[in-house]
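Project standup — Tuesday

K.O.: blocked on the structure for the chain from last sprint. Re-posting the sequence here as requested.
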Amino acid sequence: MNKPLMRTKISVPRPRKDLIHRQRLLKQLNEILENKLIMVSAPAGYGKTTLMIDFASREEIPVCWYSLDENDKDMIRFVSHLVASISVRFPHFGADTLSLLKSFNDRAFDIDVLITTFVNELYDKILEHFLIVIDDFHLIEENPHIVSFLSRLIEYVDENCHFVVLSRTLLGLPNLPLLVARNQVAGLSFEELAFRKNEIRLLFQNNYQINLSKEAIDTLYAESEGWITGLLLTAANVDGKETLQYRTPRVVGVGIDEYLGQQILEPLSEDMRTFLFQTSLLEEFDAALCKKVLDPINDKVLNWDRLMDEALQKNLFLIAVPDAENDIVYLRFHHLFRDFLQKKMIERSKSKADQIRLNLANYYAETKEWQIAINILFSINQTERIAQLLETGGPELISDGKYDLITEWLSKLTGEIRYKYPVLLSLQGMISSIKNDVLAGINSLSDAIQLLQNQPDKKSLLLQTLSRRATAYRLIGDFFHSEEDIKIIQQLTTQSHEHHKVISNALREKALLNYNKGKFNEALQDIKAAEQISINVGDNANRNQFAIDIGMIHRGLGNYDEAERYYISALEYLQKYGNFSALTILHNNLAFLYHKLGRYSQAVLHYEKTIEYAKFIKFTKFEAYGIVGIADVYSDIQAIEEAEEAYQKGLAFFNIIQDSQLDLYIRIAMVRLFLYNQKIKEANIFYNELFKSEVETPVINVLKMELAYFDGNYHLAKDILSDLLSKENQKIGKDEIALVNFYELLLNVKMGLTIEPLIDDITAMISDKKEKMAILSAGKKLYNELSLLKTENPLVERKLKSILEQIKKYGESVPEVKRRIRQHGNHIPVPPAKIEIFSFGNPRVIKGGEEISSQEWQANIAKELLFYILFQKNGVTKEQIFNALWPDVNDDLSLRFKNTIYRLRRVMGKDAILLLNNRYFFNTELDYSYDVELFDSYLNSDRVEQLKKAIDIYKGFYLEGFDNIWLLPERTRTHFMYRNAVLKYVNWLLEEKKQLLDVIVITEELLKYDPEFEEAYRVLMKVSYDMGDIKKVMGYYRLCSQVLKENLDLEPSIKTKQLLETLTK
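H.V.: unblocked you, prediction finished:
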């Protein structure tokens, strides 16, 4: 749920009518505005805020304002308000950053991605210079994450963005030395903020119509040391008829409490003192809040509007912050005066002060500001009220991902209160389950349920807790107890017209249970019923979760088109609104679907996305799912070592996520990986290590049957298979059923039994749209075994041949899949191609890990022919080859061509060059990689890391050492692509202020090929400036001048000269 933001914190405060315009400081501010960071640091009461309010009201530059308080220590709250403060002035800013922020929670907060999004949106949406004023930064500086975020944000924003940070303490930003080295920091200290004597004279003259003598000004200056709060406190009690030097106590070195009490409070009316004391506890208020919170604790009705006006008129250290949107003016005290008033209020009546805070907490609870409300309650030790609020607001806090915050609160609510308020146990159980300590979570949830069963008035909480425990049981594979909890929920809500959300959640849990049991039709019925309940009550929050679940169930049913349609619909919505948790699950489901459809490269790409998002939001379970999914694909494309490596990585997650189902799945998959690749001994050893105790489940029994088959123990395998098929109560999934069909076929052939009925059954399954993918996928795994089958019956032989042909066609070409994975995969690379072709720089070919030598090529012309055929993707005729490779030869070239093509095929393999319809092609069905294809594919991506890969591939001009005319356009094209890629990448690094040394290395490498390329010198000048090395700026300019003069007899361009002037002035 989106929390309302406090407008008073993000609006520029209204300047007071009696404000003194301090031209000296305003001028100083204007002079240092070009800096990225302006620090205004001074103790309390030196006029930091007032100065910036005056500046904001007088200057043309747009000012965004953010006033901090203690609650802003929360990272998400801080960033939300910071974004909102900018959007007040620039309404078109903030959508991208806030959308990203909504996907975060306390556990998952990726500062790198957030800063990148924030900076990019500022760059795209705000095209003018502006200020961001952050007031009272000392209140939140103890949060290292906020300090780090702000530090890096200031570093990376473009030059049009300027931060002014007001604080009582000196800023401790991690990158402050770097900013100083770049001359991007300036500031004002308390010495500069202190009032000068002429300013003291103006203060009393303009605001109090008192003409002070020189002696009086000297006395005030000496005693106040220019501290403006002391001067204002004094001025507030001067009526022009008294002598100042007798009324002014010494401000520095005496108790401020006594000073404020005597000079400010004593002359005020009782109503005004009451107003000040009580409102100080509200932090920020208007008349409506005063009536709501304070009226109940007062014996007499106070006129809050009048008292607010009077306090402003008397200059009682109140700052007015208008909320123009709602036509409201809020007030808040200067921190110094507020702290004094709060202390006095507690001294006068602690019980009344606590009651005010309790009323205030209740107000924030009504507005669902749960975090503020509960923090206030902790300050007055109202633990029972906290428990009550957690019962009401807990589900929303859980939904918002406030796991760490709730955990912190629960750590303070231990002992008897947990058993008096079972909601605390329920929340503890929920969070433990989410954080992968599922067994501990179930124990807490069970304790809560036991207590709640004796509390009839807590039915809603009981239902929530039962639903939470049902989920926890499902997560550890305890379907029986999960189903029992769902039944209890349904029994308790049979006659209920309430609890719609719980009923919907229970039906969804039931659907997921049925899905896991293979009861897909029942699952579809349940999930649609759950969705309909949510629609009927107008709850659309989970509509995309329903779409994902329905897609998953359709996949189980074999309705692959429907599954993909639901998934893509949800994907389009989630990509727009940035729910990364749902995106993680969805990419995993899409990957699984594409794998089953034989679209291996798409599957890997979506598993890669699953891993990326899971790491991003620290969703460890799905990081494991993504890795295991890639392992499954690699197993199918015979990348054996890489598949085993990925499965081992998946196993390593068990201690973290305690997912017994995943653990069992990986162990079975690894045994099969060895079996299907004829590593029978390894499969048996691995099986015996992993399943030391007898495990009797249908899936394990299928695996035992497979082991017996590959061991040659066909009778045992047949017995296990017959037992599997005879037990109707054994539920195995569609994939296992498909495998069993093929094993029955294989065993019948081995044992001389009839196979015609089985052949007919498999043929029928392939013809059935819902069964087709599962049977073909299973057949693909056993293709090597199936292809060896022989039968005497010609009709059966034809049917078997047809089945094998369809299995062979199923799925993408393995070499093509591997090429695509090499281009886009990051987490678990596939093995190198069997043939690696390199054209950039010195052209060469590596085959089977060994480079083809010049002796093997015999002549460079054979090598050139290879690259010419690769260049001509649509094939090339013999005549075209003659013209390209031997343009100046008029003799008969037939023999020369025949020898060249022979040499090429001899070194590359006979199947490397194909002749089709009198055109020569390179055989793309081979397991090969070609650097030009990789180079182009990386440049077609919009991802920065792919851009870097393209740059790394370029090792020199295309086909160096060859000079036939045909290759010149490709040499020019690839070089310009490389040059543009370098500029794009290094400029991105410069903007992000990242890896500045890499900018130098990459750009200097470009100059080796393009020594006269002036733009490269400008990049090097800029990066040297960013690193604070002005000598290098001059050095690169001189080198540019020298090269241009020597090679082209030119001077640097005006643009380069202007850059030099800008960087060195």
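K.O.: great, moving the ticket to review. Residues 235-255 have pLDDT under 50 and may be disordered. The CA atoms of residues 671 and 685 lie 9 Å apart.
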